[in-house]
Design goal:
By secondary structure, the chain is an alpha+beta fold. It has two domains: about 230 residues, FAD/NAD(P)-binding domain (3-Layer(bba) Sandwich); about 180 residues, no CATH class. It is built from eleven helices and 22 strands. The strands form five sheets. The chain has an eight-stranded mixed sheet with strand order 5-13-14-17-12-20-18-19. Strands 1, 2, 7, 8, 9, 10 and 22 form a seven-stranded mixed sheet that branches. Helix 1 packs parallel to helix 11 and helix 2 packs across helix 11. The protein starts with a strand and ends with a helix. The relative contact order is 0.19. The structure holds flavin-adenine dinucleotide. The site of flavin-adenine dinucleotide (FAD) has 45 residues, from helix 1, strand 3, strand 15, strand 16 and helix 11.
Length: about 450
């Protein structure tokens, strides 16, 4: 019977960086298991699973300042220590051939954008970032995968882990969906957003504590790229936070894709939208997510269940597809149709959608926040509040329940570690990679 020193479940950035980090410390036997395929066999439609993880066919935006979603791990590590690991993660991207430029650019335009936001009572969140692009990211993942294989990592692809083996409070291995038992001294689980719920169920079964985190619900906004040109040139990742008039809620732009495409994320009972750009930036449109934070306390603490039911309702209205609506139709209180959309000056980059009325699916407060938020945003992005602007729903940023761990990411089950988005510790490629490094260090 083979017994591995380390078993890593999930070959997204968290799992891959954990393997990399363990190997840096010692030559050892690691088994990396993923339910998806190896990178060379993975189709672009396999968005969420396979070697490289959910990030592989993403926009490839690398965020490099320890703020926003990176803060999810600040209960374990100081901002300063976190930033050091984040800088190190960036050097690994360089080592595997990423040479994209850095943003924001220290230009006069940057000063103007900061001042414009300030005088309009809008917060412009600045952070260092690079845009790799979907095509180049795949090349990076291939090099990374090959490095792991050459250095003794065994990759078991197309294999789903169903359960873990626990004896006397200590993990002993994993059980696959075909009921095969694989033994290992230390096990790391990094199943990503796709299987965050599975991780939570395991936590319930083995009495590992966790807390619910907030979620963000809203739409993806698509518009002519000239509207965001200044921000794209200077900042690349444009994060504006605006306070709405009626509810005084904060709505923010997020995951902006200059000259990008709107994409679908498929889950078990619903679909969500997202966005990505290729490095050639060929699209005439740009897009970003426009999101409202939902943080429930009582009697429903489970914000994820709430966001899921919103996503399910919108998907139901779309017959299993995302809804698209022009801002003009939403304001006018009527559903969009293909015929009406054909009069819009923005051609949708995602066609596999159903024209409809997003206000039938999203809660009133969120719809109002979006309408009011776009009006405010128009002050720093003139044209964004134009009638032709397209809205796609549902856009939901789930944040997984935060699993209780030590600083080295070990859970209350001895030798069982968790990292990445599923553990509620990250929400980005580089964030997941940082937690992979933390877990790798903890395990090795
Ligand atoms: C369309 C899209 C665009 C995005 N764009 C960006 C972006 O530009 N920049 C950015 O920073 N982030 C982006 N993200 C988010 C980013 O991809 C994730 O934050 C990141 O990949 C999380 O890494 P992870 O290692 O935690 O999990 P994942 O990358 O999700 O990897 C988890 C892996 O675990 C495997 N797995 C799950 N359960 C099991 C199981 N039971 N058994 C075996 N294997 C299992 C899955 O197959 C998957 O390969 C995007 C995400 C999507 C979907």
């Amino acid at each position: 019977m083979t017994k591995y020193n380390y078993i890593v479940v999930g070959a997204g950035p968290a799992g891959m960086f954990a393997c990399y980090e363990i190997l840096k410390k010692k030559k050892t036997k690691i088994l990396l298991i993923d339910m998806g395929k190896r990178i060379e066999k993975r189709k672009p439609s396999e968005v969420m699973m396979g070697i490289g993880g959910a990030g592989t066919y993403s926009d490839g935006k690398l965020t490099l300042t320890a703020n926003l979603s990176h803060e999810k791990a600040f209960h374990l590590i100081s901002k300063f220590e976190y930033q050091k690991i984040l800088d190190y993660v960036d050097t690994v991207f360089n080592d595997f051939g990423i040479d994209s430029e850095y943003y924001p650019k220290e230009t006069l335009q940057l000063k103007e954008l900061i001042a414009e936001a300030e005088v309009n009572d809008i917060e412009l969140v600045l952070r260092k970032a690079r845009h790799v692009g979907t095509d180049k990211l795949k090349m990076f993942v291939k090099k990374f995968q090959d490095y792991l294989l050459e250095n003794g990592v065994e990759i078991l692809d197309g294999t789903k882990v169903e359960d873990i083996i626990v004896e006397e409070g200590s993990v002993k291995g994993v059980i696959t969906s075909d009921e095969k038992k694989i033994y290992g001294k230390k096990v790391l689980l990094t199943p990503g957003r796709l299987n965050a719920r599975w991780l939570q169920k395991l936590a319930d079964r083995y009495d590992i504590k966790y807390i619910y985190d907030k979620v963000e619900v809203g739409v993806r906004v698509e518009f002519p790229s000239s509207i965001m040109k200044r921000q794209a040139e200077t900042l690349y990742e444009t994060v504006y936070r605006v306070r709405t008039k009626t509810y005084q809620d904060i709505v923010r732009t997020f995951c902006s894709c200059p000259n990008g495409l709107v994409a679908i994320e498929e889950y078990e009972n619903y679909v969500c939208v997202n966005g990505h750009s290729n490095s050639d930036h060929a699209s005439k449109n740009s897009n970003f997510a426009f999101l409202c934070e939902v943080n429930l306390k009582e009697p429903l603490e489970n914000s994820i269940a709430y966001a899921k039911s919103v996503a399910e309702l919108v998907s139901l209205l779309g017959g299993g597809k995302p809804l698209i609506q022009s801002l003009y139709d939403l304001r006018d209180g009527r559903r969009s149709t293909w015929s009406r959309l054909s009069k819009s000056f923005v051609e949708p980059s995602l066609k596999d959608v159903v024209p409809g009325d997003i206000s039938m699916g999203l809660p009133h407060r969120i719809v109002l926040n979006i309408l009011e938020g776009l009006e405010i945003l128009d002050k720093v992005m003139p044209g964004i509040n134009g009638g032709s602007t397209l809205l796609y729903a549902p856009e939901v940023k789930f944040r997984s329940s935060k699993i209780d761990t030590s600083k080295g990411l070990e859970t209350s089950i001895r030798n069982l570690y968790v990292a990445g988005d599923a553990a509620g510790l990250s929400g980005s490629i580089t964030g997941a990679a940082v937690t992979g490094v933390m877990a790798g260090e903890g395990m090795a």
